[in-house]
Amino acid sequence: MEVAVRTGKARADLVESLLLGQGALAVTLSDSGDQPLLEPGVGETPLWDDVVMIGLFNGDIDAQRVRAALSLLVDPNTVSVREVRDQAWERAWMDRFKPMRFGERLWIVPHGMDAPEPDADIVRLDPGLAFGTGTHATTRLCLEWLDAADVNGRDVLDYGCGSGVLGIAAAIVGARHVRCIDNDPQAVTATADNAERNGIADRLDVSQGQTPGEGQADIVISNILAGILQRLAPELAASVRPGGALVLAGVLDDQADSVIAAFGEHGIDLAVANSVDGWVRLEGVRA
Fold first, then answer.
1. Which of this chain's residues are annotated to bind S-adenosyl-L-methionine (predicted)?
2. Nearest partner of 252 among 229, 274, 280, 273, judged by Cα
3. Any idea what the Cα angle at residue 94 is, between residues 180 and 281, rounded to 5°?
C-alpha cells in the first residue's frame, strides 16, 4: 500500500515521523513543483518548498487509520492512498536506469548490468545522493569531452566532483592521476566509494574543500554553477598548468559571456564549444 502526502517543508519531518510511526516500511521525498536544488553548502540538507512524501506499507495496513493520523497534521485532501502490486523491485530499478554512451567509447553502466560494449571505456556508477550520474546535460557535455580528448598520462583536477563521475571517467580513459575536490562531505564519500568500485582508487585522491587548493593539473574540469565559477575564476585559472586545458560546465547559454569574461581576466580565453538543452560547455587553454 502506498500513502502519498503533499506538504510544505516546514512539516516534512513531522509527516515523515508520523508515516514511520504508523508502520511505513520506507518513506521517500520528491519535489511537488519544479524547484531545482543544486550545489548545497557544506553541512546543508536543502529541501523543496513543496514536497510529496510517499510511505510504503504492507498491504494489510489499515489505510483509514493512517489517513486519520495524517489529518492531524495536513489537509485530508492532500492525502492519497493506492494499492501497489508486488513486483521485482530490482528489475524495476534496472528498467529505469540503463547503460549510457558518451561519445565513441565511454559508457556509464550501473552495477549488475552487462556493458553493451565490453571492450569500451566503462564507468560503473549507480544513481545516488551526490550530483552527477550522466543523466544531466552538463554531465553529458563533460563526459563527451573526456571521451574525445587526449587524457592519457595527464594529471586531472575535477573541482566540484559530486559523485566522482568525471574524475573516475578521466582515470578510466587514461589519466595518470586525478584529484577530486568538493565542498560537500557526502560527495567526498560517494567519490571515494565509486573510485574503489571502479578499481582506480590508487590513481584518484578526493578531499573536501571550498577552493581548488594548491597545485596544478594538465586538465581542470568543473561542472558547477556559473556564479561559483565566476567567483573562483582566479583559483581555477591558476590551477591549470601553462598549456593545459580548462573545461567548464553548469553554465546556461545566457551566462556564458559573464563566465568567459571572468576567466579572460586571468589569462584563459574560453569559448563555447558545445551546447545541450540550453547548457553550454566552455573550453580554453592557459597560455
1. 139, 160, 182, 223
2. 280
3. 40
121 is in an annotated binding site: no
Is 139 annotated to bind a ligand? Reply is yes
Rounded CA-CA distance 4/81 in Å is 6
Domains parsed from the chain with CATH numbers: 2-86 (3.30.70.120), 132-285 (3.40.50.150)
Catalogue the E-assigned strands of the chain. Answer: 2-8, 26-31, 50-56, 79-82, 100-102, 106-109, 121-124, 155-159, 177-182, 204-208, 217-223, 240-252, 271-276, 279-285
pLDDT, tens only, 243-282: 999 999 999 999 999 999 999 999 999 999 999 989 999 9
The three three-digit cell numbers of residue 226, written as one number: 556559473
Query: What is the model's pTM?
Result: 0.70
pLDDT digits (tens, 9 = 90+) for 183-201: 988 889 989 999 999 999 9
- The answer on whether 182 is annotated among ligand-binding residues is yes
- 211 labeled binding residue: no
**% of the chain exceeding 90 in pLDDT:** 58
Tens of pLDDT, residues 129-155 = 444 555 688 999 999 999 999 999 999
* Length of the chain, in residues: 287
- Under a CB-based contact definition with an 8 Å cutoff, are residues 205 and 180 in contact? yes
Contact status, residue 40 vs residue 84, Cβ threshold 8 Å? no
**What mean pLDDT is reported for the chain?**
87
